[in-house]
Amino acid sequence: MLEIDSRQEESMTTDDADYGELAALREDESRCIRVLAACRRFAVNVGGAAGNYATFAQNEEVLLQSFHDIELAHVSSDGRYDQLFAQRCQRAGLTSADVHMLQERWRTLNSEDDLDE
Hints:
The chain has six helices and no strands. By secondary structure, the chain is mainly alpha-helical. The chain starts with 5 loop residues before the first helix and ends with a helix. Mean pLDDT is 80; it is low at 3-12.
């Protein structure tokens, strides 16, 4: 089963999107799966030779933001959406390793942004 790593859950805030937007995103199953499927292709590419050291292309940043928004939309204090997120990832072809890599890549992107400020 895919799970959101506890460090990731602690760092997630609704600053990036408001509750209503997140709920609407969570309710749009086809959109979630479509974006997660695109993230799978990205995960496979990042899993290649350059890995986490690959530089970010602009479309990759947008894709990671979309992944993060979907992940945020499925976070709750009681874990009620964890299974739904796992099912959607599975339907999109994402493995738990892919999800973990995308989470790490998101953290890398954010730490690079923090260093730029």
